[in-house]
């Protein structure tokens, strides 16, 4: 039995209420649809975690009356554990997400041509992706960077089909970094190239948040990670990602990109057909995938340049025209009343395109 005090209320937490664990803490169910995140011994003393938790708790009043708050497992109250007749901070309480399922366990299944959830359709998926981008847009407007953006930190309510963000104590805000390296498969190559900070951690950014979220959403609605492309010669782990080679860069099964040739044509054709469908049904979402995942949209951020031909410019202008006609994920593509993020602006500025 774990004896804790939360908001001046003493609670006995049985070991049977254990829900799961991660690299830094264990999760236990609490009464009234709440749960306890209890850090392992010594973890709260690393990287100013305790100071960061107190700062997060002090900002709760800024968000708790906003609609978005209900979809975030925000650290609500500090939890104190009784040890040796003394209460010391051991973690925090947060809401328990009802009927939750890990995000990508319910993704589109290419060979079955359906989603993991029986009540799920493409429109439902598109709405969830829209909600996720809106959530990120809100927190970015508050100068909060999610940082550790990975599939296990996004949950979905199987009944309401609403997305939730968890592990929110790892966010970057004010003078507090994320103090994590996340999952390398979802870390922006630009962040990897910049290397570690003095704490041997990656320094995440708003741009890296959107990069990771776009990669995850591609996997969710298409059915495969954009960089798990079966090609010849077989690449090393993360080689395709670092080179910017993904499904969006191949136009047909005979395409050759940077010396790679499609190896699994059956899977590639299924992905290609699915992408064609998404381009027709949700052109704004397809454009988001294009601008984030196609390498030419990112090399400018790495400080690299290349000469482009007149035909390439004309092709990009045509892409720009098609983008103007498409509905948008506000804030992460064209926007008339807000500043667009660096990802899209770098693409437009690099090729001297002008939006109305």
Question: Can you tell me about this structure?
Answer:
With 356 residues, this protein is an alpha+beta fold. The protein folds into two domains: 95 residues; 250 residues, Orthogonal Bundle (Transferase(Phosphotransferase), domain 1), CATH 1.10.510. 32% of the residues lie in helices and 18% in strands. It is built from ten helices and 15 strands. The strands form four sheets. Strands 2-1-6-7-5-4-3 form a seven-stranded antiparallel beta sheet. It has a three-stranded antiparallel beta sheet with strand order 8-11-12. Strands 13-15-14 form a three-stranded antiparallel beta sheet, with no helix packed on it. A hairpin with a 3-residue loop joins strand 3 and strand 4. The radius of gyration is 22 Å and the shape is globular. The chain starts with a strand and ends in a 6-residue tail after the last helix. The relative contact order is 0.09. About 10% of the residues have low confidence.
Could you say how many structural domains there are in total? 2
Helix content: 25-40%
Q: What CATH architecture of the largest domain would you give?
A: Orthogonal Bundle
CATH class label of the largest domain: Mainly Alpha
Q: Which series of helices and strands comes N to C?
A: EEEEEHHEEEEEHEEHHEHEEHHHH
CATH-defined topology of the largest domain = Transferase(Phosphotransferase), domain 1
Q: How many helical stretches?
A: 10
Q: Which strand order spans the largest sheet, edge to edge or round the barrel? A: 2-1-6-7-5-4-3
Structural class: alpha+beta
Low-confidence region ranges: 295-310, 326-343
Q: Choose one word for the global shape.
A: globular
Strand content: 15-25%
Kindly report how far apart the N and C termini lie. 63 Å
- CATH superfamily annotation of the largest domain: Transferase(Phosphotransferase) domain 1
